[in-house]
Design brief:
Layout: E1 2-8, H1 14-23, E2 27-32, H2 39-42, E3 51-57, E4 83-86, H3 88-96, E5 100-116, H4 127-132, E6 138-151, E7 156-162, E8 167-172, E9 177-180, H5 192-203, H6 212-227, E10 232-236, H7 240-252, E11 258-264, H8 272-282, E12 287-292, H9 294-301, H10 307-329, E13 336-338, H11 343-348, H12 369-376, E14 380-381, H13 389-398, H14 403-406, H15 426-445, E15 454-468, E16 471-484, E17 492-493, H16 498-511, E18 515-520
The structure holds xanthosine-5'-monophosphate.
Length: 533
């Protein structure tokens, strides 16, 4: 299968480049920008599974002329492979080839017009023409950069300029090297997909051989080979990812080899344990270990109000219980540990890929002593770690996971604890669970649920005055949150029709007696995160 490699220099939008290319049906892989390009990675003779057709150099928050600016394996300039530099990637290529990159007087951010120069003087054996097929003579691009090319390296030629007067499209006269000062992977960039397609298909000549069906077969084959006759333990959280990972194990290995462990922390959504149990049993689970540990979690959270203190207490207890229960299960050392880690989990945690990306929030479920120990022994399986959320959903459907589970909104590891601001108590969990269930049920009934990436209720640590009948009531304040997103890295507020919001609010306050007031969170990410804590 043809493959496009994306060298990640740390831009927040790097993973979108990989996404867009896969959406075109071409397999792409994002790897840290300074990865040595071994024969195994490149597979240029086509003897391995994936043959590299081109390399994309991503953007970065750093500057090429500083020490922080990561440098690619200089071999990329000797391979004769098509290269596409995006933002920092273009600056990197120009700088590495002897050109000059300097700070702009003022950082450029947002939508900026680009004009392509007359095409009379096109060189580069027709490749430049192939690339420029993707462009219209003038269009609105999306930029985010503090540096610019102030002198082009020998062989580079400017083909497009920004309305602010800086080089925006650069192509080498002889080598198949292309550069964009803007971000075609961002949806706000006009013709962004066409530009990337022109590179992938027109310049690299890649063929679209990546389908989810095919990927499922590959993953299953490599899973079966790696695991052999050994047992596998999977920690199930109840979310889409770990459930799909569980389904993949159950559909690939004899069910007797598959041990699924699930903790009911008491911080789950309404009926979560019931739903997960039913789904996994339907998929043929034979060894499903459900650990009821609500009391332990509530005790650990007692008196804690700070978000990070709560997250840490939960993370620590997860680990303690995990280790205790694994010992209790008595599985042999040869046992593999599987996880439903997604590609974006690795990125947001700053692990594996995106080494240079600035860390936003550490998700405790990516690492634990058990995970680290198994990783050291080479006994970790993360069958979804190359997939994005919606790809996991597609995979889940292919292998027969219930639609109700597959379409479920994401849910954070620490559960309701990060949606109850301040101290977490059993009573508050009950109130939030009921209100959240009403909200979600209404979204499904009104046909909004599948348009929304994630929706939930948040219980605020304040009470406000109201009336119930003729009686003064002092009830909790609830915030509703509903966002649209493609991967949770950025998010926009879901624009509800007012009528629906009003009706849902009334339904909640009429049904959950402890809630006196409902608000709607109208913050996008950034600057807010999706969860409140
Ligand atoms: P934030 O709040 O960082 O969330 O914008 C982005 C996405 O990640 C989920 N989230 C978590 N998921 N463990 C998880 O498995 C966690 O600790 C965690 N914290 C946030 C959040 O629900 C959203 O989908």
């Amino acid at each position: 299968m043809d493959k496009i490699i994306v060298l990640d220099f740390g831009s927040q939008t790097t993973q979108l480049i990989g996404r867009r290319i896969r959406d075109m049906g071409v397999y792409s892989e994002v790897i840290p920008g300074d990865t040595p390009l071994t024969d195994e990675i490149l597979n240029l003779d086509g003897s391995g599974p994936d043959k590299v057709r081109g390399i994309i150099l991503s953007g970065s928050p750093e500057s090429v002329y500083t020490e922080e600016g990561a440098v690619p394996d200089q071999k990329i300039y000797t391979l004769g492979l098509p290269l596409l530099g995006i933002c920092y990637g273009l600056q990197r290529m120009n700088y590495d080839q002897g050109g000059l990159v300097e700070p702009l007087p003022k950082r450029e951010y947002g939508r900026i017009g680009v004009k392509i120069h007359s095409r009379n003087s096109i060189t580069n054996d027709g490749l430049a023409a192939q690339f420029l097929v993707g462009f219209s003579p003038s269009f609105t691009a999306w930029m985010s950069h503090g540096d610019t090319l102030t002198r082009l390296a020998d062989g580079f030629r400017e083909y497009g300029i920004s309305d602010t007067g800086y080089p925006a499209v650069v192509i080498h006269d002889i080598m198949p090297w292309f550069g964009l000062q803007f971000h075609p992977e961002v949806t706000h960039c006009e013709r962004g997909i066409e530009i990337l397609s022109a590179f992938v298909f027109g310049v690299c000549g890649a063929s679209a051989g990546w389908t989810m069906e095919q990927y499922v077969e590959e993953v299953r084959a490599s899973l079966a080979m790696r695991v052999g006759n050994n047992p596998v333990l999977l920690l199930i959280s109840g979310g889409v990812d770990s459930t799909v990972a569980g389904a993949l194990l159950l559909k690939t290995l004899p069910p007797d080899q598959v041990h699924l462990m699930y903790m009911d922390t008491g911080l789950m959504r309404k009926d979560e344990t019931k739903t997960v149990k039913a789904a996994l049993e339907k998929l043929g689970a034979k060894h499903l270990h459900i650990i009821y540990c609500e009391e332990e979690f509530l005790t650990a959270l007692k008196g804690l109000e700070e978000p990070e203190a709560k997250r840490k207490a939960i993370g620590d207890l997860f680990i303690t219980i995990q280790e205790r229960e694994v010992v209790r299960l008595g599985l042999p050392d040869s046992c593999f540990l599987a996880q439903g880690t997604l590609y974006t989990d690795l990125i947001e945690s700053g692990k594996g890929v995106g080494k240079k990306a600035h860390l936003i929030k550490s998700h405790h479920n990516v690492g634990s002593p058990l995970v680290d120990a198994k990783r050291k022994l080479g006994r970790i399986i993360e069958p979804l770690d190359k997939l994005y959320k919606d790809e996991v959903r597609r995979l889940g459907r292919i292998i027969g996971v219930d639609e109700e589970v597959v379409r479920r909104h994401p849910f954070p590891g620490p559960g309701l604890a990060v949606r109850i601001l301040g101290e977490v108590t059993k009573e508050k969990c009950g109130i939030l669970r009921d209100a959240d269930a009403i909200f979600i049920e209404e979204l499904k009934r009104r046909g909004f649920y599948d348009e929304i990436w994630q929706a939930f209720a948040v219980l605020l640590p304040i009470r406000s005055v109201g009336v119930a009948g003729d009686v003064r009531k002092y009830g909790w304040v609830l915030a509703l949150r509903a966002i649209v997103s493609s991967d949770g890295m950025t998010a926009d507020v879901y624009p509800f029709p007012t009528k629906d919001l009003l009706e849902i609010s009334t339904l909640i306050t009429n049904t959950v007696k402890d809630i006196g007031r409902v608000t709607y969170d109208i913050s996008s990410k950034p600057p807010a995160t999706i969860e409140w804590e």
